[in-house]
Amino acid sequence: MEKIIEENKQGTSLVLEQKEENAKKLFIESYGCQMNFSDSEIVASILANQGYNTTQNLEEADLVLVNTCSIRDKAEQTIRKRLEKYNAVKKINPNMKVGVLGCMAERLKDKFLEEEKIVDMVVGPDAYKDIPNLLKEVEDGRDAINVILSKEETYGDIAPVRLNSNGVTAFVSITRGCDNMCTFCVVPFTRGRERSREPQSIIEEIQDLWLRGFKEITLLGQNVDSYLWYGGGLKKDFVKATEMQKATSVDFAQLLDMCASQFPKMRFRFSTSNPQDMHVEVIEIMAKHHNICNYIHLPVQSGSTRILNEMNRQHTREEYMTLIDNIKRIIPDISLSQDMITGFPTETEEDHKDTLSLMEYVKYDFGFMFAYSERPGTMAARKMEDDVPDEVKKRRLTEIVDLQQVHALEKTKRFVGQIVEVLVEKDSKRSSEHWSGRNSQNTVVVFPKENYKPGDFVNVKITDCTAATLIGEAVEYSTIMQ
């Protein structure tokens, strides 16, 4: 639930540059959070070396892969419908092989092979390097499965193929797995324990992206603030590290400082943060570097300390508010976004009012808000009754969304009359005569194209806004271009 799920990207089929020598066709589509989309790039890179070119035509595919999400029931239902579609195509093309990747693969491994007869291969998030071997099993007429969770795998040695890329922004994974056992979340069970990627491999991947013209990197992880490299292994085993390993370890603040210092003309973002792990050092590094964006996605889930305790969140309402105070003190023009779950088991009207009052205190720029849905395998599903009626969940969710909309408009209005730095990313959705990009605070900015192009950093004077978009006119190139 901590990972942002962008609805407009769900089910995107991925395409990369075709290799003439590759004769087989791969159709791969992704659901869920950005970690899944990033993983699909790793899988495509592995299969490109196995003779596969991607296609967007499902009917011509030799291999169909769906990268899955277990965060919400809606995602699982969508994927089951996609499997029905694959089944229909497989009747026309019986040689087509189908594989399920990702979090649902790990959680529902036996069901996929035994009940969903369409599925030939089930591959968990830590087993993508084993896909070539699993394909041999499938070709020999056997079902193939590998959902073993790794203590070491970070895919740091694989250069992901950038799929459906705008050539301007890219994601670079820095951690895998999660140690936070939030009672509503399946991630620790589907992606395993937390481990960090070797810093030099991260720097090398960013260097490669810089040489290829990319201008903005988002450092990606289930919980980036707890990044800790001490030579490899699980985060929880750091206590067993040698004195030398501890002395030479790299935490997230150091990694962020390293990235921003070595690539001063690239912009950096990161996602997702966890309140318990976001230390003041990270905020100070953000304030130190112009090229680290003034935006933090800081999921809170509830404004009630009692509900936070039920969720096994390792922070209270008061601790979260103190963190917000520190962030705003060090970076006054920060933009903040939230994840919020309403209707968690035992949530009362008082708990709900605590959430609304926390929102009033913080005034988030953006929000990702959901009514609680019980996820099989989580501690909440095993030990708590889903006792808040659906109509109450819906009403509370509506109140949260409505309040967020008020705050969002208030937050975008603050930019009207200001000049903001924008990285041009793509055409505006509404007009081919306008560019669309984002400012440091992650707000979308639209302005007339003139002679600017994607990848340019442009100073834009804001003349108008909606709750989600800033509208303006270009003034000049920004100083980061010089």
Automatic annotation (TrEMBL):
Tell me what reaction this enzyme catalyses: N(6)-dimethylallyladenosine(37) in tRNA + (sulfur carrier)-SH + AH2 + 2 S-adenosyl-L-methionine = 2-methylsulfanyl-N(6)-dimethylallyladenosine(37) in tRNA + (sulfur carrier)-H + 5'-deoxyadenosine + L-methionine + A + S-adenosyl-L-homocysteine + 2 H(+)
Main EC class the enzyme belongs to: transferase
GO MF annotation: an example: tRNA-2-methylthio-N(6)-dimethylallyladenosine(37) synthase activity
Q: Which Pfam families match?
A: Radical_SAM, TRAM, UPF0004
Q: Identify the Gene3D superfamilies for this entry.
A: Methylthiotransferase, N-terminal domain, Nucleic acid-binding proteins, tm_1862 like domain
Q: Tell me which residues bind [4Fe-4S] cluster 2.
A: 178, 182, 185
Q: How is the cofactor bound?
A: Binds 2 [4Fe-4S] clusters. One cluster is coordinated with 3 cysteines and an exchangeable S-adenosyl-L-methionine.
For the MTTase N-terminal domain, which residue ranges apply? 24-140
Per UniProt, where does [4Fe-4S] cluster 1 bind? 33, 69, 103
Q: Which cofactor does it need?
A: [4Fe-4S] cluster
Query: The Radical SAM core domain covers which part of the protein?
Result: 164-410
Please report the stretch or stretches of sequence annotated as the TRAM domain.
413-476
Q: Which UniProt keywords apply?
A: 4Fe-4S, Cytoplasm, Iron, Iron-sulfur, Metal-binding, S-adenosyl-L-methionine, Transferase, tRNA processing
Q: Where in or outside the cell is it found?
A: Cytoplasm
Q: What is its EC number?
A: 2.8.4.3
Function text: Catalyzes the methylthiolation of N6-(dimethylallyl)adenosine (i(6)A), leading to the formation of 2-methylthio-N6-(dimethylallyl)adenosine (ms(2)i(6)A) at position 37 in tRNAs that read codons beginning with uridine.
**Family of this protein:** Belongs to the methylthiotransferase family. MiaB subfamily.
Q: How does it assemble?
A: Monomer.
PANTHER family according to UniProt: CDK5 REGULATORY SUBUNIT-ASSOCIATED PROTEIN 1, MITOCHONDRIAL TRNA METHYLTHIOTRANSFERASE CDK5RAP1
HAMAP family hit by this protein: tRNA_metthiotr_MiaB
Q: What's this protein's name?
A: tRNA-2-methylthio-N(6)-dimethylallyladenosine synthase
Per the UniProt record, the source organism is Flavobacterium sediminilitoris
Organism ancestry = Bacteria, Pseudomonadati, Bacteroidota, Flavobacteriia, Flavobacteriales
Gene encoding the protein: miaB
